[in-house]
């Protein structure tokens, strides 16, 4: 099978971002390996690139913390070559004093941030991804929301409507509003929630086999299963092939039963804001929850496998290979797992930009990536 076409980052320019005062880079089409000690800014570089995809830090840092200390604003500009032979330019700037964020695509300012999201198609691998498995459910919901918002038409609108409606409904519950006042917000919540639940269930069902296959290949052991754990009762939650209306019906039934408890507690007790992803390792037919009982290596294997399914999602949705960012992901993996991850990543045809503390950690593309050294906020070609 022919490799899918890929978008390539050609140029990146940073001004007053993190520890970079001024930085201009021209990337080779295959990508580059950025080598330097911890604290030199390797992760900051990938953070800046991925900022142009979601216009927030993949590390969860507030925008104000991304501005270089003592400066008034940061600015990022990326230029990309598309498979169609066109140039895509995306810029982002933030000024803390006015709390002003400005985003442009090909010179035109985005009226709404959502209009500019996901124009590039990137996936970032990081050691902190282990929290996708070991961390709280909010980490996994955020992962789902980002992947689906960038790749499934209509999802972003549904999840935004759900969040807005949930906020208003919770305020009414807290104020002990009348049933009549609460009802229209419940109807809106159920409608948006059904669409969100349907998209999440469909994605998990579509990617579950691929996740299990990659987990088994990386770990060299029995596979793990990924499941969609809706907040509604398992026996009442529709299957992935059900309609959004059927998911909405299940949510409505749950809210009806919890009506009195919600009034007592002043909060919405069921819905996508309480969903989770399940990860269970098959041990002789007995499921072992990786979140609670998995070893560090098993949890990291699951996290890498999950990111690989994100890359698959981008390929399927965009019909082109994603730009792959790898932030020192081999530091926490044993040699066997690292080698098998490299084999899988070598199968990814897109441009790859990775960071590592030492040259011996860089073998992606069989060591064929151009090597750069980073120090003091500057990047130069390695000798």
Protein model, in words:
The structure is a single chain. This protein is an alpha/beta fold and 383 residues long. The chain is built from 10 helices and 15 strands. Strands 2-1-4-5-6-7 form a 6-stranded antiparallel beta sheet, with helices on one face. It has a 6-stranded mixed beta sheet with strand order 8-12-13-3-14-15, sandwiched between helices. The protein has a 3-stranded antiparallel beta sheet with strand order 9-10-11. It is globular, with a radius of gyration of 22 Å. The mean pLDDT is 92.
Attribute tags:
single chain, 383 residues, alpha/beta, 10 helices
Number of DSSP-assigned strands: 15
- Based on helices, strands and strand pairing, what is the structural class? alpha/beta
Low-pLDDT stretches: none
Main sheet record: 6 strands, antiparallel
What is the N-to-C order of secondary-structure elements (H for helix, E for strand)? EEEHEEEEEHHHHEHHEEHHEHEEE
Largest sheet strand order: 2-1-4-5-6-7
Helix content: 25-40%
């Amino acid at each position: 099978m022919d490799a899918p076409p890929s978008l390539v980052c050609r140029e990146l320019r940073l001004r007053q971002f993190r520890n970079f005062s001024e930085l201009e880079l021209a990337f080779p089409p295959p990508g580059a390996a950025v080598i330097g000690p911890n604290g030199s800014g390797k992760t900051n570089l990938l953070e800046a690139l991925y900022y142009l995809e979601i216009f927030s830090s993949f590390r969860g840092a507030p925008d104000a913390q991304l501005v270089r200390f003592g400066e008034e604003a940061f600015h990022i500009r990326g230029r990309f070559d598309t498979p169609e032979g066109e140039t895509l330019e995306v810029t982002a700037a933030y000024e803390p004093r006015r709390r002003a964020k400005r985003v442009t695509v090909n010179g035109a300012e985005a009226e709404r941030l959502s209009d500019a999201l996901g124009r590039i198609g990137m996936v970032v691998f990081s050691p902190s991804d282990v929290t996708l498995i070991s961390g709280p459910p909010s980490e996994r919901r955020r992962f789902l929301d980002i992947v689906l918002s960038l790749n499934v038409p209509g999802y972003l609108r549904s999840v935004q409507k759900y969040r807005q409606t949930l906020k208003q409904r919770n305020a009414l519950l807290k104020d002990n509003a009348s049933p009549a006042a609460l009802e229209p917000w419940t109807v809106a919540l159920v409608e948006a929630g059904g669409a969100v639940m349907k998209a999440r269930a469909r994605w998990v069902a579509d990617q579950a086999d691929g996740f299990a296959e990659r987990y088994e290949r990386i770990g060299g052991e029995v596979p793990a299963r990924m499941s969609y754990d809706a907040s509604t009762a398992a026996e009442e939650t529709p299957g992935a092939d059900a309609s959004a209306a059927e998911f909405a019906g299940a949510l409505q039934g749950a809210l009806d039963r919890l009506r009195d408890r919600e009034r007592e507690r002043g909060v919405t007790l069921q819905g996508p804001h309480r969903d989770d992803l399940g990860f269970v390792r098959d041990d002789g037919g007995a499921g072992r929850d990786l979140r609670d009982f998995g070893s560090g290596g098993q949890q990291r294997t699951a996290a890498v496998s999950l990111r690989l399914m994100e890359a698959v999602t981008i390929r399927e949705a965009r019909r082109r290979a994603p730009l792959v960012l790898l932030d020192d992901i081999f530091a926490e993996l044993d040699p066997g797992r690292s080698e098998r991850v490299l084999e899988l990543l070598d199968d990814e045809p897109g441009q790859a930009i990775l960071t590592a503390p030492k040259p011996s950690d860089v073998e992606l593309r069989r060591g064929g990536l151009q090597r750069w050294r980073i120090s003091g906020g500057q990047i130069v070609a390695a000798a």
